[in-house]
Amino acid sequence: GFLTANIFGRTLLKVGEQLVNRMPVVRTIYGALKQVLETVLSQSSNSFRQAVLVEYPRRGIWTVAFVTGDTEGEVARCLDDDMVNIYVPTTPNPTSGFLLMVPRRDLIFLDMPVEDAAKYIISIGVIAPEEEADVATLPTPEERQDELPKSLSAE
């Protein structure tokens, strides 16, 4: 039973992958998604801990990112805040992206599973994750009193 189930499961997966590999656009998306999920979301990996929203690349524009850990070492000593490392993947290929060190207070931590956030990014927003729980209400621009750092402002 166990051996047959494993052989059957592997065969079914192989046939499915062969079918997907015949579709150019789907093949590209599937290949990237498979690589990311196998590498980053494996049980032994601690890479992507949680999905977050971050205001990036400018105020009023939001993107989904992944927490990769707390900022530590020399970088943490140079910054006077509780900083978090986040990875902002590019769409539709999440193997490239940006590492940002962001103040924890500037992140909105999401309840959605990391896997759903990855699907959302890779699908270019077409596959929207179902709402898991109440998400914090985002403040309006008027409610946001803080200013962008001088290095990011247009002045």
Question: How would you describe the overall organization of this protein?
Answer:
This protein is an alpha+beta fold and 155 residues long. The chain has one domain (2-122). The chain has helices at 2-20, 24-40, 73-78, 114-122, and strands at residues 50-55, 62-70, 83-89, 97-103, 107-109. It has a five-stranded antiparallel β-sheet with strand order 4-3-2-1-5, with helices on one face. Strand 3 (83-89) and strand 4 (97-103) form a beta hairpin. Helix 2 runs antiparallel to helix 4. It is elongated, with a radius of gyration of 19 Å. The termini are far apart.
List the helices and strands and how they pair.
Elements: H1 2-20, H2 24-40, E1 50-55, E2 62-70, H3 73-78, E3 83-89, E4 97-103, E5 107-109, H4 114-122
Antiparallel strand pairs: 1-2, 1-5, 2-3, 3-4
Can I get a quick summary?
The protein has helices spanning 2-20, 24-40, 73-78, 114-122, and strands at residues 50-55, 62-70, 83-89, 97-103, 107-109. With 155 residues, it is α+β, with helices and mostly antiparallel strands.
Going by helix content, strand content and strand pairing, the class is alpha+beta
Largest sheet: 5 strands, antiparallel
Low-confidence stretches: 150-155
Q: What's the total helix number?
A: 4
Overall 3D shape:
elongated
| Residues in β-strands, percent | 15-25%
N-to-C span:
69 Å
Helix content: 25-40%
The beta-strand count equals: 5
List keywords for this structure.
21% strand, 5 strands, alpha+beta, 4 helices, 155 residues, 5-stranded antiparallel beta sheet
